[in-house]
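Each field is set out as follows.
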Amino acid sequence: MTHDPGVDALIRQWSAERAETADDVEINRIASEWLADVPATPGIPGQRSSEESPDWSALEVTDSSDASYIAAMRKRLPEVPDELLAAAARWWRMVGGVAEAEEWWDAGLSPLDQRALEYRAAGLSPSDLSAHLGPYTVLEHLRRGSAAAWCVARLARARRDAAS
């Protein structure tokens, strides 16, 4: 599929979860009814709509941004379900957008892989993935289990050493 074992496993798991039985349908119906009784609106923790209002600000999802992401990723992953791409689109839209997701992909890490968001949060950029830290690139170190924070620290030290 994607030639990335982690992403392929995620796609297989997601597809298996979507093959619902009659019991699953009943459970989802009951959960939906129960959640419908909850008066709170969903929002992003820490984001307030205004200072006068103590309520959380609702996340506005526009179909156009999701559609542009889905179209861009559909070229690369024709067999992945649209729902999975739409879920990834919502994450990438919150943190960086379609262009950045494509940069991560071009650097060797699928934007469907949750680790891309973790690496981004740690301070790595797509261009950092090809930098060499010893015999391996940053991406190879990450795939071998090195922590993103360790890679960021090593990159900072290598840049500091090169500048002096």
User: Anything to note?
Assistant: The longest helix spans residues 148-163. The chain has eight helices and two strands.
